[in-house]
Amino acid sequence: MIFWDPKIPGKKLDAIDTDQITPADDCVSESLDRLDERWKLGAFRYLMPDFRQRVHRGETFVIAGERFGIGSSREMSPAGLKAVAEEVGLELVIVCGDGVGDIFRRNALNLGLHVVQSRAASEDAQEGDVLTFDPSSRRLANETRGKTYEPVPLTPMEDEIRRSGGIIKVGRREFPEATAQSPRVEWPDPQTAGGLTSTEQIVWAHRVDKNAQVRPGGTLRVWCDLLPASDGTAPFSIHTFNQITGGDRIFPRQAAIANDHFVFSGRNADDKQTSIGREFAQLHGIGKPYYATPGDGIFHFYFPEQGLVVPGAFIPGADSHSRAYGAYGAVGTGVGSTQLGFGWSTGYIYFTPAKRRRVVFAGRLRPWVSGKDVVLALLRRWGKAQAQGMSVEFVDAGRQLPIPYRNTVANMMAEAEAQNGIFAPDEVTLDWYRRKGIRDLPYPSFKAGDQVAWDIDETLDLSELVPFIFPPTRWPSRS
Q: Whole-model pTM?
């Protein structure tokens, strides 16, 4: 099954996002027993309406272009695709370009959905080609064209997760030992910190295995300070937690849930969706501020306002806009529901630091220019490639950007396809906490080291920016 670009004949379709894979209306679950029913029904509902029927006929290779699976944390997308094939005893294989949505990629890995990143394989494939895939070696072959392809490799730890059968099986294996462990956070000495970004220093401090190296491309286990879910992602996280732990053996570690997606709609299906998280919170005694009822606030604003997000914290959230926590000097990154449920079970997650990118904001900010204008200018500069999955360090050289502006910039690193974006804590950060009545922060001050080797180092001159104004789609008549 090939997704062709309707605008460019002969080209595979790029940037198929998770909204196109699983539309929002199909992301609901009415109960834990019927978790994936709607996900299967909605798979490529609009992009390929006969997808389910074609898979059931034996078409098990999906061919797409670059940046497949970009977008939200919704693990309903890879889970729904995988489940459609499993209904008839088949395995689905996604073949796409070298670039793929970071959260989708990790979700697929955790679930055991095969994703083959090979630009050559994607470009070569034509309608009617016969493809084969060896799950053991991950080698793809186009039998029709007599070609074989080696996909973008996994890290050794990622391959171990894959060979173990996915994150739930790994969680069951590690759960007994994890219950006996308590997080130990130790910050790097000045010499070590000198070669690490702010993100890497936080990861270094939160390492489960204190001998593990922190470097781009290396997967390691990292203790979490908070593991928030939304009402949309909580049900699958709860399912994962129950599968790993048995359901009621431990209190969910660092768990938090915000009801901000499927609320006030008046739809019965949405009410059933939110009830799953509510009943879980009641069962385990999770109350405010860790459980936000409808109307309490938006996920990526509510938890910082409650003082649950602090500088130096490591916070993977099952919402792609968890990246917003970088505004407060924390590592905020989006993860899927199974990764979060694994974290609720063990207290840590598996994390692979990305390449390093620094953006220095220089020049004087003009009147009426806000954080929205800053990040839109940055995204416009980056173009189609966006942040290339990198970890982005922001430097507010003149300390001109207040926390709401920084929140917008870090938040939209989801749209920029960055792993995360972070502002190292400075006087702007500390003043925001003081005004909230929070003076005793748990972690020491830090900033990126002087010896960091940035993969991309750039400057954005704020004095050149003007407000972005979106005009009406149709100008009113002058007559």
A: 0.94
